[in-house]
User: Fold these one by one.
Assistant:
Number 1:
Amino acid sequence: MKFGSYFLEEITPFESMLRRMDEVLEKRTTKFQELTLFRSGGFGKVLVLDKDVQSTERDEHVYHDTLVHPALLAHPNPKRVFIVGGGEGATLREALRHPTVEKVVMVDIDDELIEIAKELLPEWHQGAFDDPRSEVHAEDARAYLEQHDDTYDVIIVDLVDPVGEDSPARYLFTQEWYALLKSRLNEGGYVAMQAGMLLLTHHREHPVIHRTVREVFKHVRTYRTYIPGYFLQFGFILATDATDPLEIPAATYQQRLEERALKLKYLNAPLIAAQFVLPNDLIEAIEAETMVSTDAQPFWLDEEGNPHQTPL
Amino acid sequence: MKFGSYFLEEITPFESMLRRMDEVLEKRTTKFQELTLFRSGGFGKVLVLDKDVQSTERDEHVYHDTLVHPALLAHPNPKRVFIVGGGEGATLREALRHPTVEKVVMVDIDDELIEIAKELLPEWHQGAFDDPRSEVHAEDARAYLEQHDDTYDVIIVDLVDPVGEDSPARYLFTQEWYALLKSRLNEGGYVAMQAGMLLLTHHREHPVIHRTVREVFKHVRTYRTYIPGYFLQFGFILATDATDPLEIPAATYQQRLEERALKLKYLNAPLIAAQFVLPNDLIEAIEAETMVSTDAQPFWLDEEGNPHQTPL
Amino acid sequence: MKFGSYFLEEITPFESMLRRMDEVLEKRTTKFQELTLFRSGGFGKVLVLDKDVQSTERDEHVYHDTLVHPALLAHPNPKRVFIVGGGEGATLREALRHPTVEKVVMVDIDDELIEIAKELLPEWHQGAFDDPRSEVHAEDARAYLEQHDDTYDVIIVDLVDPVGEDSPARYLFTQEWYALLKSRLNEGGYVAMQAGMLLLTHHREHPVIHRTVREVFKHVRTYRTYIPGYFLQFGFILATDATDPLEIPAATYQQRLEERALKLKYLNAPLIAAQFVLPNDLIEAIEAETMVSTDAQPFWLDEEGNPHQTPL
Amino acid sequence: MKFGSYFLEEITPFESMLRRMDEVLEKRTTKFQELTLFRSGGFGKVLVLDKDVQSTERDEHVYHDTLVHPALLAHPNPKRVFIVGGGEGATLREALRHPTVEKVVMVDIDDELIEIAKELLPEWHQGAFDDPRSEVHAEDARAYLEQHDDTYDVIIVDLVDPVGEDSPARYLFTQEWYALLKSRLNEGGYVAMQAGMLLLTHHREHPVIHRTVREVFKHVRTYRTYIPGYFLQFGFILATDATDPLEIPAATYQQRLEERALKLKYLNAPLIAAQFVLPNDLIEAIEAETMVSTDAQPFWLDEEGNPHQTPL
């Protein structure tokens, strides 16, 4: 390790990473978070929000392909999409690539982050904020959905983990929140969500989320991918009362990719199906999980990664 | 990050990891490498050889399942197995679990490492060295194979990367070496190998290995998994002149798992098939690769991860 | 920085050090603290208590010479010495080198540390615990002095900093504590104490201690030295109602060194005098300081190094 | 240690420091070196050249007072001053404060560094480059002195260490170089130089420099100070054929400070004298040193800090 500038990230409770910064491009503080943008030899531009690397120029397609397209391709004709979070605009960008989509409503609490993204992160949004089908609101997503009863074909949830007993994000991981999402889905709709790192050696975050979502939806399926820029494997969840994702063959994804003339950098139809195939240890951990997060007892993660529920 | 003891690992040319050590259990130096064994909050015992984490108590099954079982399950009746490297004994252990196996010859250059493993790493070998079907030689694997013309049903290659222009490992990544392996395979045989981290943002190591193996074998297939203890996704290669791994259905793996009464901690039959499904960017990188490593121009990796071929 | 094992120490609120460990010799936990002993390329054995390097084999003489000898040489005939803290035995060792000394009473709260020191730190104590003039008590030094009215010619105080609002050490930095020390001094006696790192760019720790001691003693003099193993300059205080240390010429120290046949590795008579010569910025900071630590409002340091006084 | 941006500095061969960067102000690369300027919670602006912290806003007066004023105050009437190195302008600034000075010639090899300093480091130069008495040349100082036979009352040498067998700095640490400096001194002149960190536990850098200068000058005296921003104690050398610095009483320094109406932030007259008082271990190391660096066998430091001489 050579002398020079590094970003220190605590990627797990027991392992920290020093990322070499070739250049610090920006450092700004919003009401909600601190943004650092630097250039790295491996990943190009690296976007950090508070303590965590959020996205990198050279591998953001891995994350955004995996978050957005399985849900939109599971749906035969997605017209209206709702995005929770997703401030840097790449989730919006990918949703808009589906020609069936007529409207995407994105709600991110951090208005300053959205402004910064427009200015500094063109590689991420690529103009998506200016698409006439985009509607962006800077407010709390749960409050927004409680106050608006519009419904959607696909809802995509892209949130930070509920770390700390006081984390405001706790109320975006409860049974009641997932029920609210379900109530805003059209028939045949899907919810896709980022659902925590898969690191069973270290903690139970993903199993708790999975278990909680199961209280609300008929079909809840974990899928997963390795995100190079995080150096972690992440779990995602596709939830629906319509067709079980495991019943959708690769050929259906392939047909829809072709119909919609989509050429993705990372995902392809067989890989979407393959991402739902889980290893034995993860299957067992999900089946063994009993914790259900509720508004009365929302779960949160301590610094060691352990889940807790504090009664109000 | 709290004060205390850490192991610094340069996991890529641009990112380094500090791993918290709860306790340093051993530190020994052999003729070939330096061994550190420590206890970690996330992974239990962590084994480091020289600069790289090699294996951890709590996730070694991910790596060894993935390295060993696809090849042994692709073969309908594997009797004789050859292991290149694999000093800590877990590759041997997994190979011996197949009841069809009558003989496993393991050749690792580091005799001291094998002795240390016997003493300090019971969680890894679990007595495999004492199995009457095991035959362990401490010498250079290429020299051994050149001098012995015994043949095998499965060969498993578990080697360190050829980092540095002087790396002796360079001659275990060339076309001639793979041809030697092929000459020691029985008809219907398979070679499985660890084939470098998959980190396209950073380098071309895996594509070069894949391209070189293709010079020798009829069917060369990349498969992959995330290794939590490495915080990296690794590429593996299954090579054969017999049935193309992509033609083996999950049901065949399932049937052989049942016949052999194998219950694995990580892998299952659908997951083996799923591991061979690759993302678009990796498919493109493999197809675009042109570098072939030969004894005359063996490839090696510089500190930035770039592959080079130095004419002799 | 090469891969390998390191100790992470937060040496200031803004700068942390990674010290390469060639070998971890011991790690033990007592009721009061965690001890780590490792071997370093630069300093030999390095002793860490909790988060701070406490002493190193190759430079401990710098610290212990500076803490012990100025007080004992300032006194014409020191017979009875009291040591607060000093668990590893090197302060005791140096005090016993003065042939005038008939008795050294050492009180350190951590009995396990003393036992560990006897076993693992022979380079530090060099048998001092077995000297018939040594009397060692494992208890709280303030309680001990309150309960015993024996008096001494020299008192040496070697304590950790009062970091954190709950630090029990806070009561060993107050005006009342210094008054207690004074009440246990014979006429003509001296108190020497370690008095915090001198790092005016970062904080006011030393000026606050100096200011508080001034409430109690007629002559209070700061002296200082660089401690290589800490990578910091430390302040010490010599306090007395007898002869002002600034009035003691180097020739007096020299004469006493000769009378007592003392040959020190670090200190010499002119250097003792020179250590009392202070730079302008430190003189000004001491003069400007107004905070006096009392039992009613004991001072403590926050994580940024700022001093606070919390009313009870 | 919190997540965020840090500068990694290898301050010794065995210890590295991570300095928290509140903000990266600049990063530029010249023909000769890489400059990083960041803001730190403890030191304010921190200037790094290549791998080493060079100077900090809040403690640069410690270094520059110590490098410049002892020589200029040892001389009764310094008119002409020559500076080797000193690109950021603070050495120049301090020399110009002596009203006796009529001319300061500064030669630093890095013209871009001087331009950057003028623009970015006003806290350091404070306009010194614009003083009509200043004459700045961007070229190799040894070549300059060989080609110009002007002479000076005081020469100040502020150079980087000769690290590495190929270091061009090696030729600015040889007997022939010191003889060249002496040939450019007026009668009664003094040379002051930064002469390496004092860290006897780690290496012999300072003793070798001291021993080499002794081949050339009649009086060679080591003095020293702790530089907070380096976390190291540094050795300096004052060399002359005129009055031995040890023969100059503090009263003389005091008188000259008053005559020249100088009020320094760090140094005062008694402290200048005190800085020349050395501890026993350093005295012994200097006396024991036998290595003399010459143009034929210039000394250099390896990565472990050991001095070597390679015959041409």
Note: The two ends of chain B are 47 Å apart (CA to CA).
Number 2:
Amino acid sequence: MQLLGKRWTGLILYQLLSGPQRFSEIESALPISGRLLSERLKDLEKEGLVNRQVYPDVPVRVEYSLTEKGKALEPVIKEIQLWADQWIEFDNKA
Amino acid sequence: MQLLGKRWTGLILYQLLSGPQRFSEIESALPISGRLLSERLKDLEKEGLVNRQVYPDVPVRVEYSLTEKGKALEPVIKEIQLWADQWIEFDNKA
């Protein structure tokens, strides 16, 4: 469960809510280094939240997608975002 | 935001959803050491999620309660719990 609090995990999950994506697509969508993104994706895979699919194209194609367990986090991610929009925004202006 | 992922934070917030409580009440409700509970409460106070109220009784009485910002996390905590009930439970039996 601590994984959910790790920096970038929520944003990576949120990014994958819009469907399977390649590493480069996720990397370009988020202000995160390739090394850290790769580390977080491995964590998420180990926790059974993300699935890594390798396609034998030439060159080989690798796609990441949410598992059922990962997709089930959608309400959590959305509530965190609603809360952050209201309270984190408020803190910056205060 | 990483604070939400830290071990015990969610359970402390969940515990305080039922209203203001003294340190000893929180400590007895959760399998957590006094030192760690005190550390987490300080973190939560710094983030503006928890309020620490000192009453000038004899002996002095200290109560912890959720701020508005803390209470606004209720939907997040409830969704995490729903998810954990379904998926974390499932993992243990598999």
Note: Chain B touches chain A at residues 1-7, 9-10, 48, 69, 72-73, 75-76, 79-80, 82-84, 86-88, 91 (CB under 8 Å).
